[in-house]
Amino acid sequence: FASLHEKVHPALLKFYREGSILTNIVIRLRGGHPADFLAWLNRTSQEFLPDIPLDISFIDDNFRRLAEKENLLGQAINFFTALAILLATLGLIGLTLFTIERRTKEIGIRKVLGADRIGILKLISGDFIRLATIASAIAFPVAGWLVSQWLDNFAYRVSISVGTVILTVALIGAIALGVITLLTLRALIANPVKNLRTE
């Protein structure tokens, strides 16, 4: 009967009459066919109270309406999170391609001198991993504070677990490493002689 921002208080559900007409009634439905029951309820009410239309509402719908703002906020957060990941991935792709293009000759020389693919991959990805670590060190405390402020609006709240943070860091690292690895391997497949001729 109240939103999730308020603590649960004791409640008393009371039947009361105005004159001789029963105005409120609370009915608990078991599983099955609620549509059949509602049809029966409408027919029965027309027999006893033909002039008064029924106003039927389900408590699930009431709770849904109370949480509508949070649901909309959750959808907006999901959309902007997906958009941020997409933009960050596109930026990472552009930065990786730029770095590889700048170091094309170096990659070719290292390949000719016998460097293995893992060594070259570590060389190129090292800077990006450092940048991602610095960005995460800045972003996670800010995000944690913002989420904590939002959760403080609720009477009953969950806490952010360390597992969630670790999973997020692992996901960011996997996306970054996957993009860098794919683009670096594409550069490593190229003929080193062609790379050395590149100006």
What does this molecule look like?
Strand 1 and strand 2 (21-22) form a beta hairpin. The chain is 68% helix and 2% strand. The protein is mostly helical and 199 residues long. Strands 1-2 form a two-stranded antiparallel ribbon. The radius of gyration is 31 Å and the shape is elongated. The chain is built from 7 helices and 2 strands, in the order ββααααααα.
Describe the secondary structure blueprint for this structure.
Elements: E1 17-18, E2 21-22, H1 34-48, H2 59-66, H3 68-102, H4 104-112, H5 117-151, H6 162-189, H7 192-197
Antiparallel strand pairs: 1-2
How would you classify the helix and strand content by structural class? Answer: mainly alpha
Strand order of the biggest β-sheet: 1-2
Distance between the termini: 72 Å
Helical proportion, percent range: 55-70%
Number-wise, the strands total 2
Mean pLDDT, nearest integer?
A: 79
**Could you give the order of the helices and strands?**
EEHHHHHHH
Keywords for this entry:
single chain; 199 residues; mainly alpha; two-stranded antiparallel ribbon; 2 strands; 2% strand
Short description:
The chain is 68% helix and 2% strand. The chain has helices at 34-48, 59-66, 68-102, 104-112, 117-151, 162-189, 192-197, and strands spanning 17-18, 21-22.
